[in-house]
Amino acid sequence: MMLVTNQRTVLFSSFLVLVSPVISIMATMSTATTSVSESSSTLAIATRLHLGYASHPPPTSQLKSSLRSFAMMASVAGAQHAVVAVDSEPKLEGYDFVKEIQDICNEMNETCENDSADPPAAQRQVLIDVLPVTPWGKFVPALNAIVGWSARKRASYLILASAEVEITSGAVEVMKCHIMESDDILVVGE
C-alpha cells in the first residue's frame, strides 16, 4: 500500500490489511486543493457484492434485504452518494448478477424519487449507483473502482462497509473527527 499524503491521494495495491474492521472511512480528495475540514464536505458510502463460488443464484428476497439494509445505512450515515460494486464476470449460466442488482436498485431508486415530495421519506434513502467491476479478483479491483467512483462524485469522505453492517451517525462523526485530527491520517476504522 502506498499513501501519498502530501497530495492527499491514495493508491492501492493491497487494501484489506488496512480495512480489517468491517467499517472504515477514508478521506478521498477529488483534487489536491480540497480540504477535508470543509463544512460542505460530501460523504459517499460503498459496498461490494459478488457470487463467490455459488452454484446457484441467491434468492432475490435476500438481495433485496441486503440492498435495503445498505440503503438504510447510507441514510443513517448521512451519505449523499451510495454505490454497490458488483462482480460482472459471468459465474452462473443464464444468470446476470449485475442486471439483478441493477433491477433491485432501480426499483429502490424509483421509490426514493417518488417519495421526494415527502421530505421525511426522501431522507430515508440515498440513490444507489451500481458499479460493474471486471476483473473482480479478490478485493483490490472493486475497491479501486469504488475509490475512482468516489473521486468522480467529488466525495470528501468514503465509507466502505459490508451491506449488513449497522452504523450510527455518531460513529461516522467520530471517524471524521479522527481523520481531521491530522493531515497524515487517511483511513480510520471501527
What does this structure look like?
This protein has a domain at 39-166. Helix content is 34%, strand content 21%. It has helices spanning 60-77, 97-114, 119-122, 140-152, 169-180, and strands at 2-4, 9-11, 23-27, 43-49, 81-87, 128-133, 157-161, 187-189. Strands 6-5-4-7-3-8 form a 6-stranded mixed β-sheet, sandwiched between helices. It has a two-stranded antiparallel sheet with strand order 1-2. β1 and β2 form a beta hairpin. The chain is globular and about 50 Å long. Residues 1-24 and 27-39 have low confidence and may be disordered.
Spell out the blueprint of helices and strands:
Layout: E1 2-4, E2 9-11, E3 23-27, E4 43-49, H1 60-77, E5 81-87, H2 97-114, H3 119-122, E6 128-133, H4 140-152, E7 157-161, H5 169-180, E8 187-189
Parallel strand pairs: 4-5, 4-7, 5-6
Antiparallel strand pairs: 1-2, 3-7, 3-8
Please sum up the structure shown.
The protein has a domain at 39-166.
Descriptors:
alpha/beta, six-stranded mixed beta sheet, two-stranded antiparallel sheet
Please count the helical segments: 5
Percent helix among the residues?
Answer: 25-40%
Structural class: alpha/beta
Radius of gyration: 17 Å
Strand line-up in the sheet with most strands: 6-5-4-7-3-8
Largest sheet: 6 strands, mixed
Portion in strands: 15-25%
What is the end-to-end distance? 20 Å
